[in-house]
Structure formats: structure tokens, C-alpha cells
Amino acid sequence: MLLLKTVSADMKSHGGFQWPIEGPVSAPDWNPEPICGGGLHGLPWGEGNGTLLDWSNSARWVVFEADDAMVVDLNGKAKIPYGMVVHVGNRESASKYI
């Protein structure tokens, strides 16, 4: 599965987590419970609650990949314990990638 999220210009997400530009990424606080927090959060296939994205011009749009079996559905978004960053760009390039 491909997941979409936005981060700040310096590749940081909520709570200050530093995302890589590419390659492996893992959640140091992984919690498999179906509650917000404790994982890497994103919109599955870029679909879900768009209000969770940063629509500012400075936002970076991250596409990351995960095995479907480890995805925890959070009703409008999802979380995973680890994955692979496969694209970083803007809204248009991330949408095209997905």
C-alpha cells in the first residue's frame, strides 16, 4: 500500500519526528492499537481525511510504502510500524506518484 502524508519543509511531522528523504522509516513509539498515535500516519492511497494534510506552499508531500497486512485503519487515515519512503515532493508530484 502507498500512504500519503505532509511534513514541514525540514521533513518533520507532528511531535517533531524526522522523516527521511528516502528509504526506510520506522516509528520508535509503535502501538498496534487502533488509536491515533504510536506509529507512522498517512492517508491510504492518498484518500481519507484531507484536513489532516498541510496545504501550505512550504509543506513537503511524502509517499511511503507499507505491507498491507501491517496497516492499522484509523477511519480516515492509517498507521504503520515501519515502511519505505518512496517519494518526496509537492502535492502534484505526490498525487501523480500514487
Provide a concise account of the structure shown.
The protein has 98 residues and is mainly β.
Counted beta strands:
7
Helix and strand content put the structural class at: mainly beta
Low-confidence stretches: none
Total of helices:
1
The overall average pLDDT, rounded, is 97
Main sheet, how many strands, which sense, barrel? Answer: 7 strands, antiparallel
Query: What percentage of amino acids are in beta strands?
Result: 25-35%
N/C terminus separation: 10 Å
Strand order of the largest sheet: 2-7-4-1-3-6-5
Described by the principal axes of the CA atoms, the overall outline is globular
Gyration radius over CA = 12 Å
Order of helices and strands: EEEEEEEH
Helix content: under 10%
What tags apply to this protein structure?
seven-stranded antiparallel sheet, 7 strands
Characterization of the model:
The relative contact order is 0.32. Helix content is 7%, strand content 35%. It starts with a strand and ends with a helix. Strands 2-7-4-1-3-6-5 form a seven-stranded antiparallel beta sheet. The chain is built from one helix and seven strands. The chain is globular and about 35 Å long. It has 98 residues and is mainly beta.
What layout of secondary structure does this protein have?
Layout: E1 2-7, E2 23-26, E3 40-44, E4 60-65, E5 72-73, E6 78-80, E7 82-89, H1 91-97
Antiparallel strand pairs: 1-3, 1-4, 2-7, 3-6, 4-7, 5-6
